[in-house]
Specification:
With 117 residues, the chain is mostly beta strands. The chain is built from no helices and eleven strands.
Length: 117
């Protein structure tokens, strides 16, 4: 199994930047995709970005050109660099790990990002 833990959230002004981290413990070699999701108050959780073992990335249209997902050199960490933040980016951000080990889908506890106007 794997266990992801997010950090790096906080309060930032509109136009500012934050970098979220997702540290994964456990069987890192079983991971084939790492994803970030977010959930704003009163809304459904939505996809933000993903990166595969082959470093193929994908982004939601709402964050393209502003957010960058990457992996750390030790492969135990996934980052989400967020720039040009907007108030509508305010949400709890979750790390999701896709693994070949059952149950296959692992979620972190989330980290709050608040962007003030």
């Amino acid at each position: 199994q794997v266990q992801p833990v997010e950090s790096g959230g906080g309060l930032v002004q509109s136009g500012g930047s934050l970098r979220l981290s997702c540290v994964v413990t456990g069987n890192i070699g079983s991971i084939y995709r790492r994803e970030w999701y977010r959930q704003a108050p009163g809304k459904q959780r939505e996809f933000v970005a993903s990166i595969t073992t082959g470093n193929r990335t994908s982004y939601a249209d709402s964050v393209k050109g502003r957010f960058t997902i990457s992996k750390g050199s030790a492969l135990s960490t996934t980052y989400l660099q967020m720039s040009s933040l907007k108030p509508e980016d305010t949400a709890v951000y979750y790390c999701n790990i896709k693994s070949i080990l059952a149950p296959g889908d692992y979620w972190g506890q989330g980290t709050q990002v608040t962007v003030s106007s």
